[in-house]
Amino acid sequence: MSGLENRSNWAVVLAILSVIAGHAQAQSIAYPAKGQSSQRQQKDDGECYGWAKRNTGIDPAAVAAEPPPPAGPAVGGGERAAGAMRGALGGAAIGAIAGDAGKGAGVGAVAGTMAGGARARQRQQEQQSSAQAQKQGAVDTFNRAYAACMEGRGYTIR
Predict the structure, then answer these.
(1) Residue 20, pLDDT score
(2) 128 and 71 Cβ atoms separated by less than 8 Å
(3) How far apart are alpha carbons 137 and 49 in whole angstroms?
(4) CB 25 within 8 A of CB 60
(5) What is the pLDDT of residue 19?
(6) Cβ(125)–Cβ(11) below 8 Å
(7) 33 lies in which domain range?
(8) Alpha-carbon distance values, 49 to 14, 53, 117, 131, 145 (Å)
(9) How many domains does the chain have?
(10) Is beta strand 155-157 parallel, antiparallel or unpaired with respect to 30-32?
(11) Other CB atoms closer than 10 Å to residue 112's CB: what's the count?
């Protein structure tokens, strides 16, 4: 496995672990501050869960179950092809000065392809980070609504 594939695999693992950690963090603890029974707490918990889901439009179970964005090879967007073209043009110009435009174009194309691949990987990583932040934001919104409901019913939330 190449170093790039290995880094990509680690990025996926870290993204999954961060979703799991975020989901574990998202679990609020409700303390019955007014002596509510466990049966009453279960009822309130279910009602507040439903209320928060209806009022925010967010189902934390569905958010957690969403697959992460694809993390395969970064090939989309044409960054490699564009990089190869820019590199070939620049290499041909430099090669023409040195007396071998074809060789310069080839070297430039290889360098441009590598730079384009780096840009594609960077874009893919930014998309993954953005998707993770959106998921976490949705869960946080749900948790605030759930906590407001439970606090309104006399529970202390942590």
Answers:
(1) 45
(2) yes
(3) 17
(4) no
(5) 43
(6) yes
(7) 3-157
(8) 28, 6, 45, 24, 9
(9) 1
(10) antiparallel
(11) 24
